[in-house]
Amino acid sequence: MKSNYNRLCTVVMVLFAQFVFAQNMTITGKVTDNDGLPLPGVNILIIGTTSGTQSDIDGNYSLNVENGSSVQFSYIGFKTQTILISSAKSVYDVSLQEDNSLEEVIVIGYGSTNKRKVNGNIASVTSEDIKEIPVSNFQNTLVGKLAGVQITQVNGKAESGVKIRVRGVSTVNQSQEPLYVIDGIPITNIDNNINDSPVNPLLGLNPSDIESIQILKDASAGAIYGSRATNGVVLITTKSGKEGRTKVSLNSSYGWSEATNRRDWLNTEEYVELFVEANLNAGFTEQQAFNRLNFFTDNEADWREGLVDVDWQDFALVDGSVQDVNVSVSGGNAKTKYFISAGYNKTEAIIRGNTLERYNLRTNIDHDVSEKFKIGTNIGISKSQISRLSNDNAFATPLQAVAQVPYSSPYLEDGITPNGGTLYYNFLFQEFNADHNVNIWRNFVKIYGEYKILDELKFRSEIGYDVTNQTEDRFFGSLTESASTNGFADAYSFVDERYVLNNFFTYDNVFFEKLNTNFILGMSFEDTKSRIRFVEGQNFASDDLQTVDSAGEIVGGGSNITEFNFLSYFARSSMNYDGKYFLDLSARIDASSRFGTDTRYGTFPAASAGWIVSEEDFFDSISFLQYLKARVSWGITGNGGIPNFASRTSINGGRTYNQNPGLQIGQLGDSSLKWEETTQTNFGLDFGFLKRRLNLSLDYYNKQTTDLLLGVPIPGTNGGGASLLTNAGDMENKGLEVALSAAIFQNDDFSWDASFNYGLNKNEVLSLGVDDADIINGQNIARVGEPVSSFYLVEYAGVNPANGDALFYRNNVLSDGSIDRSLTSNFGEASRIIAGNPYPETILGITNTFRYKQFDASFTFQGQFGASIYNNGGRFQSANGDFYDNQSRDQLNRWQQPGDITSVPQARFFGGNGTQTSTRYLQNADFVRLRNLSFGYTLPKTVTDNIKLDRLRVYLTAVNLLTFTDYDGWDPEATADFNANNSLRAGIDFYSAPPAKTITLGVNVDF
């Protein structure tokens, strides 16, 4: 009996062993990131056991598992992924996606934190969000991706300035630009040009070198930068090396560009009909009209028979291109990490004669000298070469060519020489007989050392040097507008140097086991010096001699040196208890040489608190909501963007009568001049739904700006100009921001991620000094109770159907306080009204990203609503025959006989019938734009491994592919560049070129 029992046990054990042997298996594979690069040290764990392994330096792994087991792959900075093991498969290659959850590292002033600990409002993008967008500057890669941040390129010129407005406009006529900080060093953001068309000062920064961008929007986040944070702070972190084998990356692309929009103009037949009609209506004879038509041609058949019919826009807007090549080498070991890159960009703009060529070099090195001491350096060098154009307010600018009559030939019969007999100056002479070349060298160097005094205490010292060297050379030959002087040339040199020294202590410790603390205490010193030199000459012996040295007469010149500095002290404490209660306190004291001796120092405090409600025990019962954090912040920031020595009375030297030297009062100063101060309060809620696959942030803010820096009118008899810069006035911005992100679908083969951002802002001027007097600049006004830079115009009322007269609303205030809404055809009888706002009340962005196996795709829509735009060129372009200018096609709907119902008045040559500055040329600037669209394909690893590559990806991208708008100008965002640096002037379009629509084909190679 016992023998049978033993036999039975033996059989059972053998069968069990065979079963176990059959279920155990070895799996292998490779772990990579979402770019296909190997990840060493990935933790690989069999769920429910303590068994596991790690990937090796090449990302490979091997693990004994049982059939049906679940294996988890986890790595810092990446999303954890779990796979189910099947006996039918033994090789499992895993691609981990970067984790953008609460542990995402967020750069803040003089340090970093993670998203979980942030109490303020910080908008953040990474290199993944902005890569491969074919634009020449990094600012345009951010469009549509940040709630409450409006980013607009002034116009379609390759080097054009870029405006960033964070939570609205907080000043009337001082700088509205944010503070830019690269790798912890505040940098210069000064535009210098000689033709009133701004050059983007940050043009030299290569977008491919950027690791992340954080925009500090609320006061608690920005107050650590004190007197310059009211307009927001843009923190830019460049890429650095990571421990591991050397990685070489190549990105090369080529794109084709064209204007986002082209306008329609009258052809020769339509123009002649309109012109003759306008002359007859003005009391001239038909023969007089014909005589005038002959002014612009030697062949009457050109206009009578339509032998010449030119759309001059075809010569102004051309096909452009964008070429980009970027190479980087990165890697390192436990002691030294490095990132080295080189980049090249060539942009042929969609405006004739406008090109940009940029070269970039960058080296970032970090080295641990010992366990306590580390050093590093960040070096960026760029050279930008630009072939520039005149500003928008010049006949030499290409788009003003649309005013030429359509039967004027651009060239003479030889097809090469520009025609000099056109209505206005033929801009083609600029290409034929003129040059405007700009060279900009920008060098940025940061050196730092960090010493760990104690495990909890470290000291860091940073020295930054930022220098811009810009030269401009212009020559206008004897066939250009300078023909009367036999040619004109000038040479301009600008050098801007900034030295920055940051020294600060950082203390981190944990008290009472649950109280985590971080303290920063430091100082900063900045000194900025600018030098300008220029010389002008005319009367050249030959157009082949184009430098001032060859001028027969030197007609002008000068030089200037100016300097300002900041001395600052700052402190911040960040505390959290048990990982769910958070408190941040900060303060900065700034002293600036720009302000009065009595008010040189300003103090800028801030505080914020946060509570992760979902960490509380009572929250466990709420099943649909996995995360909830409440945030509140308060702080004071400043705006010191005023001219150097603005607080001082100055005496200027110069030439007086008969070239004798003399002195005169340059300006009157105010010794009590101080910063504009903005007090901002922010309330925020962060939600996480569906196991954090759906995340929502809501923020409400209120910004109160006091002590506005305004130029107050003074009697001219005082000398020193017509105004005195002083503190007077208040302004308010308040708004709502929504940021939503969702991992809509995720599995091994397919993923779909989406994000949405929405910003609502209301601006109001609260006061403007003692008497609250309006500040008017052209079509814009600052008035108490209204948004800053509102449009101030006579209200157009259409056309009198009986006689074709343009009509206007009188809008005069009557004795009883009511408004006279009666109509008049006499423009002088009408009063101006507030008619619109150049700044949008609502901005939004929507981004979707898809991945299917080796394919990827993404798109971003941006939208803007509530703004108006004034087409200042409309009074020439849509002028019902008032001038010789060719006209837009709305003129085909002009009034021609009694009873006609239209908004276009009767055509009258030199009649001024409705061409005055009025709301006739004010339009809605709402638009929705398909900002970015991309498709990519990454070759399978089986292919790239055979050709010894880590990754090879080809992609197709498009920028500004579609625009939906009712604006009938070139583009609802394009504005006059000669107004770009005038803070009060906003929303004015004057022959302003549209942005480029670019389609790019590129390749990424990593090895």
UniProtKB/TrEMBL annotation:
Signal peptide (UniProt feature, chain positions): 1-22
Residues passing through the membrane, by range: none
Subcellular location field: Cell outer membrane
Source species, domain of life: Bacteria
Sequence ranges assigned to domain TonB-dependent receptor plug in this UniProt record: 115-233
Keywords: Cell outer membrane, Membrane, Signal, TonB box, Transmembrane, Transmembrane beta strand, Transport
Membrane topology: Multi-pass membrane protein
Xref: SUPFAM superfamilies: Carboxypeptidase regulatory domain-like, Porins
Family: Belongs to the TonB-dependent receptor family.
Protein name: SusC/RagA family TonB-linked outer membrane protein
Source species of the chain: Winogradskyella maritima
Lineage: Bacteria, Pseudomonadati, Bacteroidota, Flavobacteriia, Flavobacteriales
